[in-house]
Amino acid sequence: MIKEVLVAGNRGTCGGVNMALESVNQVLDIVDRRETVYTNWDIVNNTPIMKNLGDRGLVCVKNDWDKVPDGSILLFSAHGVPPNFHEIARGKNLTVIDATCQLVNRVHSLVKNAVDHGKHVVYVGVKNHPETLGVMGEVDGQDISLVENMADIENLKIPGKSAVVYSQTTLSTAEIRQKILRLKERFPDIWIPSRWDICYAADNRQQAVEKLVKLVDLLIIVGSKHSHNSEELRRIGEMAKMPSFLIDSPLEIDKGWFGENIQKIGLSSGASVLESNTESVLDWFRDKDVLIKYLPQVVSEKSMMFKLPQASINLLKARY
Ligand code: SF4
């Protein structure tokens, strides 16, 4: 019988997602349905948020440029885009609002700079993830090797030049540590920067869930299946050998999950999940008189807002 739900202190939207959502909200308010607003990809990887934005007139084209009419308004998602997307947008005379997270932009710059200085980049990331495509595109896929799993490391060949490791921002810290150790064994001269690229939000949410799983019998992560950082949180529960579920809404909760031995539930949410969504899941438990306990943050983290693409938002205001 469920006695309580412990809620991780570090959870929910991060600085990049807050910035991207504020950008799209401002754009939709300015446009006010006078025309369709497009986005190259899900602005953030969260189904309920994208559904809501879709209802307000945002159309996601999944990088299919044929669906974006010349002269229209296009948002680039928080995951970032390869530079040739900007060229295509210029060619189609689009008004672009770039909502790329600044921590993703940082990795773009590092990768470009390394290749410009004659280095080979080993990029640890998820194949075909929009963030990976954006970073790889920064150097046209030249002088960069994508490493997704341990087998990729075993098969990796580095050309005769110095190499450096960068990574996707939302990976699991535990897994990247393992990959870096193996890369160092195989290529002792490879350069591992002292600051890793996993962003503060992914790292803090992972640390909080690592502590949480020591206190509970079952883990629920609020987030969408295609959200990489949310899935990484769920996998922490899986690695701790407990039932672990990733859900977008309370409608996905299955009472069959909660056997007699399940007394304490741990709950957190990914970096693209609004607190209102997490609360709707907690309400499901409140309705059954389950005690909800909010844990303190394991790493102090204020609600962050990164810099908005204000210049292009202002330009948009001048459009009408
Ligand atoms: S998870 Fe990290 S890198 Fe991704 S948008 Fe949020 S702050 Fe930026």
- Elements, N to C (H/E): EHEHEEHEHEHEHEHHEHEEHEH
Bound molecules: iron/sulfur cluster
Strand content: 15-25%
Q: What order do the strands of the largest sheet run in, or round the barrel if closed?
A: 10-9-11-1-12
CATH superfamily of the largest domain: 4-hydroxy-3-methylbut-2-enyl diphosphate reductase, catalytic domain
Q: What is the CATH class name of the largest domain?
A: Alpha Beta
Structure in words:
The chain is α/β, with parallel strands linked by helices and 320 residues long. The protein has three domains: 4-13 and 200-294, Cobalt-precorrin-4 Transmethylase, domain 1 (3-Layer(aba) Sandwich); 15-101 and 305-317, 3-Layer(aba) Sandwich (Rossmann fold), CATH 3.40.50; 103-186, 4-hydroxy-3-methylbut-2-enyl diphosphate reductase, catalytic domain (Cobalt-precorrin-4 Transmethylase, domain 1). The chain has helices at residues 15-31, 47-55, 83-91, 102-116, 130-138, 150-155, 173-186, 200-212, 228-239, 275-286, 310-317; strands at 4-7, 37-39, 58-60, 73-76, 95-98, 120-124, 144-147, 163-167, 218-222, 244-247, 264-269, 291-294. The strands form three sheets. A five-stranded parallel sheet has the order 10-9-11-1-12, with helices on both faces. A four-stranded parallel sheet has the order 3-2-4-5, with helices on both faces. It has a three-stranded parallel sheet with strand order 7-6-8, sandwiched between helices. The longest helix has 17 residues, at 15-31.
